[in-house]
Amino acid sequence: MRDYILLYINGQEQRISGAQAFQPASDYLRLDLGKCGTKVVCAEGDCGACSVMIGKLDSSGQKLDYVPVNSCIQYLYQLDCSHLVTVEGLRVEGQLNPVQQSMVDHNGAQCGYCTPGFVIAMCGLANDLKCADSCAKFPAGQKLTEELVKDSLTGNLCRCTGYEAIINAGMAMDLERFKPFASLYNESEIVASFKAHVSQELLVEADGRKAFNPTTLASANKFLADNEKVVIVSGGTDVSVNMNKRDLVPKAIMSTAALPGLDDITMVESADKGEVMSIGARVTLRQLERAIKDLVPEFYDILWVYGSPQIRHAGTLAGNLANGSPIADSPPFLFVMDAEVEVTGQAGARRIAMADFYKGYKLLSLKKDELITRIFLPLPKADEILRLYKVSRRQHLDISAFTAAIRVTVKDNKIVAARVVFGGVGPVVKSVPEVEHALIGKVHELATYEAAGKVAREAIAPITDVRASKDYRLTLAENIMTKFYYESGAKERALACR
Ligand SMILES: Cc1cc2nc3c(=O)[nH]c(=O)nc-3n(C[C@H](O)[C@H](O)[C@H](O)COP(=O)(O)OP(=O)(O)OC[C@H]3O[C@@H](n4cnc5c(N)ncnc54)[C@H](O)[C@@H]3O)c2cc1C
Ligand code: FES
Ligand code: FES
Predict the structure, then answer these.
(1) pLDDT digits (tens, 9 = 90+) for 408-441
(2) Phi and psi at residue 125, to the nearest 5°
(3) Minimal CA–CA distance to 153: which of 114, 179, 180?
(4) Is there a domain that residue 260 lies in?
(5) Residue 277 sits in which domain range?
(6) Per the domain annotation, does 497 fall within a domain?
(7) Ligand 1 binding pocket mutation candidate from 238, 366, 390 (most atoms within 8 A of CB)
(8) Are 224 and 371 a contacting pair, CB within 8 Å?
(9) Of 178, 208, 234, at which residue does a domain stop?
(10) Which residues of 177-194 are buried (b: 16+ CB within 10 A; e: fewer)?
């Protein structure tokens, strides 16, 4: 059993054990290593000032895949066998790299506090574009566009420069001169080192706390069974915020990072559900976004406004479900598609229907020794109309005030099947059978949906909180039914917030 975390930081090996392992990467960089280029502002994933590139072994196990993440919500125990590249590590032969140079040339910084984060986010885009032919993140030959620059920067806030200069800098990056991270550092040495370590189990202990990285499901289940109140960490985008801002100090933490067989997406056929996407619990939202883009564009649109690239590079679908928030963005879709969650414990694997997964506010149908291992997501059929809605105060990087998923089958202008689910209207995501009954068997016309909207208003009892008032949520639930009707004939997809 290994008792130290193996990291490379800007190409230098680091072995971290004891209490040092229980801190966010941003603190380790700034306070322990004096690498203060990485800034911390919000410490909860919202501003991007702490962004660093992180390289992990890709699915081939022979190369490193680099993505930008928020280092304030990436704790070191999650990052075993990772290469962190900070803003200090971007120089090429002592010179600013083309992204940094472009920020200088286009006056992309004033106080400069946000600048390292913007530079890292842009480097993430530049790196993906440079390896588009081999890494399948973009179609081969993908050009730099303003939309891509803006998308890559949705997780970064600037208080003083204004975004125009920064976007201009992004558009002017000299991609010809940009060296991908794989060629900037000794990739073969780092890969060899990670391969020698990655299959070793890791247990770090300090001050009565322990962090465990199992490499088999059996040892994960045993650790859960043997320890009290274990906090499972996948991407850490919820857990780490709770640690930074809500005084969560878990005695026992178990990271899923080294569990094999949970990082793939495959398609399976089901006799009753047709085509089903099987999504491993370690699949990040960014990987899912790419896989689902053409298969379920409605869900791709939801993922597009989900957090930021940095959040989606770390966060997982499994974490979103297990967090149990009634305003999480993926559960309504999974509910209406009758998805199933596979959980595995010492007794083996079992599947739980989404409708049975939540027992109350943040209460899951999981036994003590179980963790989520896969999600089985049936895909919409050609004759079904699916619409997903996220209502939030701003488009990107915002938590929903209200969500809805509506799936309807219409034959000969009659509604023959309907599934309607709302989020943000109670302690758990809520299926509304009353509304479904108000639709099924009726003519697919405006009056039916107007009547169903009135039923929706009666079927829920939302509360007023910081995100929305009770009345606003009631109005949304009613009006979303007519919105669905108006959009049901449309070819193009439409988000409530677009
Ligand atoms: C800035 C910011 C923006 C965000 N934006 C959005 C948004 O737009 N929409 C949205 O829905 N959410 C959003 N979130 C919340 C969060 O990113 C998502 O819920 C994410 O999907 C969580 O995944 P994770 O892997 O990071 O979970 P983690 O933080 O690792 O875990 C979350 C919960 O799931 C449990 N868990 C994790 N993996 C497993 C497993 N395999 N088995 C059992 N339990 C497990 C953990 O113990 C914890 O309770 C945002 C968060 C931040 C910080
Ligand atoms: S400090 Fe704001 S995202 Fe990390
Ligand atoms: S340059 Fe000052 S916050 Fe962006």
Answers:
(1) 999 999 999 999 999 999 999 999 999 999 999 9
(2) -65, -45
(3) 114
(4) no
(5) 265-378
(6) no
(7) 238
(8) yes
(9) 178
(10) ebbbbbebbebeebbebb
Biggest CA-to-CA distance, the chain: 71
Structure tokens at 309: 């690239």
Residue found by looking up tokens 């974490």 in the block: 319
| Ligand 1 pocket residues where CB is under 6 Å | 44-46, 231-239, 241, 256, 281, 306-307, 311, 314-316, 318-320, 322-323, 328-329, 371-372, 397, 399
Q: Is 370 helix (H, G, I), strand (E, B) or coil?
A: coil
Together in a domain, 337 and 447: no
pTM metric for this prediction: 0.96
Q: Measured between alpha carbons, how far is 181 from 17 in angstroms, rounded to an integer?
A: 27
For the record, the structure tokens of 58 come out as 């890709």
Phi/psi for 367 (5° steps) reads: -80, 165
Q: What is the pLDDT of residues 71-128, one digit of tens each?
A: 999 999 999 999 999 999 999 989 999 999 999 999 999 999 999 999 999 999 999 9
Q: Which of 292, 310, 278 is nearest to 71 (CA)?
A: 310
Does 246 share its domain with 286? Answer: no
Q: Please tell me whether residues 358 and 481 are part of one structural domain.
A: no
